[in-house]
Description:
It contains eight helices and eight strands. The chain is of the alpha+beta class and 209 residues long. The chain starts with a helix and ends with a helix.
Amino acid sequence: MTTKRLGKSLTRRGALALGASAVGLVAAPAIVRASAPYKRRLNMQSLNSGEKLNITYWADGAYIDEALRRIDWFMRDLRTGETTRMHTALLDLLWEIDSLTPSTQPLYTMSGFRSESTNAWLAAHSDGVDPSSFHMRGMAMDLTQDFSDPGMIYRVAKKLGKGGAGFYPVKRPFVHVDVGPPDSWIYPEHGDPTRAERYEREEAEKQKG
């Protein structure tokens, strides 16, 4: 049995023992980390390009440079072909969310990095796109996993409270997650529009400190 499947199996057992609530799902990963603390792996498939990536990006206490480069390309702006260094905190959040869900499906991604031009185009042609989106910083991902329960990732991300979590129950439902200041929303509601400014202030304070 692979580490991923073992982790998923243990997660499901933990969830069953604690009940099928979000609390149960969040409590179970302590077992996952205990069984495989030496590596973190992401299994992803792009719903837009069809590309797949199943890769260990962190092992024995360090991020793997080549893996990060491959992830940057996988999460590139498909409209322009531009890439950026994706924030490792986002990768860790995705890994943790995946560890906490009972699904064995990959993370089906829809939008990772966005260039300023792509984000501006989306903001002009659709509702709910933040002009100062964390996608432009390599800090956000739109995704889903279990098509029969598209809100599952949202519930887990909201419970973790490690960034932004937004659920979009549209024709093709998806969840937005980011590693900016904590916030949560369900479309047609929107997240706090001051989050990017807050993040910049916090980063500036860290630089001073």
